[in-house]
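Entry 14. Structure prediction run on the chain below.
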Amino acid sequence: MLVRQCAGGVVFYKDKAFLLKNDKGEWVLPKGVIRNGKISSEVAVSRVRYEGGVDAKIIHSVGETNYEFFSNSRRCPVRNQVKWFLMEAVNDNFSFNKMEGFTDGGFFSIDEALDMITYSQDKALVNLAYKQYQSFLEETK
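Output returned:
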């Protein structure tokens, strides 16, 4: 099994979460493989910008997820281990990257986002991150 270290962002702007719709019709969070000696936080910020066109800053680490799939191109099972960062967008501008296969995206109310997200572990992650984000906002008032 090929094991890949990845990083991604759980991005909020005010009371909305950022999601992307991939070419399989799945609503997901922006993430990517850590390569070339980069650190996870750099990858998370750059993937949020590259995949979603969102400028965001990291608040803190919010957890890790793992998932497995069979790669037809590699002809082997793959496990992605993703380190997630709670992030705040500087504004609600976005531009999903069609060349990377994204067909839709945007900022959605938390209830709408939780209904839309395809994978249960991503729903749990967004729910947890939103609570932490709300606490962060309260502390910074």
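The radius of gyration is 14 Å.
Filed with the rest of this week's runs.
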